[in-house]
Amino acid sequence: MSAPLESPPTTRESSEAAWRPAPPPKPAADATEEALYEVRRKIYPRSVTGAFSSWRVWLVILTQLVYYGTPWLQWNDRQAVLFDLGARKFYIFGLVLWPQDVIYLAVLLVISALALFLFTAIAGRLFCGYACPQTVYTEIFMWIERRVEGDRIARIRLDGDPWSLRKIRIKATKHSLWILIALWTGFTFIGYFAPIRELGGEVLHWTLGPWQAFWMLFYAFATWGNAGFMREQVCKYMCPYARFQSVMVDRDTYVVTYDVGRGEPRGSRSRKVDHHAAGLGDCVNCSICVQVCPTGIDIRDGLQYECIGCGACIDACDQVMDKMEYPRGLIRYTSENAMRKKLTASDARKRLLRPRTIVYTAIWLALTAGFVASLAMRTPLKVDIIRDRGALGREVEGRWIENVYRLQLINATEAPMKFRVQAQSDELKGLIVEYDHGAESLSPTSNRLLPIRIRVPIDDAKQGTHKIEVTVTAETEAERKVDIRQSTSFIVPRDL
Length: 496
Description:
By secondary structure, the protein is α+β, with helices and mostly antiparallel strands. It has three domains: 27-43 and 98-125 and 238-378, no CATH class; 57-86 and 132-230, no CATH class; 381-492, Immunoglobulins (Immunoglobulin-like). Helices cover 42% and strands 19% of the residues. The protein contains 17 helices and 16 strands. The protein has helices spanning 28-40, 51-69, 102-123, 126-130, 133-149, 152-160, 165-191, 196-204, 210-230, 232-238, 241-244, 260-263, 288-291, 312-324, 336-340, 345-350, 355-376; strands at residues 74-75, 78-79, 81-84, 89-92, 95-97, 255-258, 331-334, 381-387, 394-396, 400-411, 417-424, 432-434, 441-442, 447-457, 464-476, 481-492. Strands 8, 9, 10, 12 and 14 form a five-stranded antiparallel beta sheet that branches. A hairpin with a 4-residue loop joins strand 3 and strand 4. Helix 5 (133-149) runs antiparallel to helix 7 (165-191) and helix 5 packs across helix 9. It starts with 27 loop residues before the first helix and ends with a strand.
């Protein structure tokens, strides 16, 4: 059950109290006991409808269509998105990434972090309330729970009833549906790392590999546990974002806020009563905003780190205001400055454009543009030259000095590629390159280790170490010519 609400204050509070300071600390023993109680307390969120609820539903549908549907898409006769760890290749539609492309992952993580900072500076924990996997799967599991067990009061009564065949049947139905969704989620997760169509056949024929089975069951168990049981505990105690979000918000950040100046003093009343004449604020103290909160907080106590910004309390309060024929917006998205300075909605939105958000946006746009441009101009051929340490330099046929190298060639495209290798140097004349000319092609998305021998006439070879440049020229089916140059050293022994 929800914790009992405090008695309403006897005088109207100023809007300056919208963001109240934390109450004085309780004795250590009482605080420890209350903390343990909070961990054990089960929250029964009440269903709610409204604009923010509709947004959550649509984002749940969108995110799950992307998550469950992407592995089934095909591209060039293969899975469109596949992170093939065994072959060390990442396929993302027409893009093929190799371990050498890890820089792209690093930049992508930085871009995502900056986007999170920007969104948080503008409107608080939007990601948590609408797109976080924990929130999304909790919404899915709660929807099933409401369909099977009923809304808040029905679930509270069911949990309080003694065990019976009816209760066992209802609980078994709920958990069966939860487990089916969790298993499908785990199966889809593995489908990003192994071809999902083949994976489906292995599951149907019970031939799934031990590691694939382990990770599928592990991810399914995590989904079932986090979304079915832990729920708000993950947001409140496990997620680090809840702890450091305060450094990314300021007094102009839009957050879910209770209008204290308008709502207090709160108290129940008939709709026919002139509550202003009776010395009451607009809040009727129905506690529905607490009942619909997925983390079980009372938004009327001010901004709290447990608030995920889902807007459920806004929808619930607006419905109550409609029934009481009061203006909407007693609980609304607004900023601390807008509340304290009584700014209009237009003026509050103008303050979103401030140095912090401008800097975040500029850096984010610059990194994103650089990331996209780098991918667009990415070289389709990767070359790495490695000297053969076992033969630094040797005389061949009495007329040549020869060094041996190995070329690591990677075709980063899905088209065959032909190549040739040349060498030149400002210090050495007459360099020739010898290798297997019958293997001057690279298959799509393949790599090859090609031994090459570079020779220089003995009469033109000066003793010592000389810098040379190896050029690999490749052509693709699209007639795109690529020249890759790698510098290395050529050693002429001193004992010649």
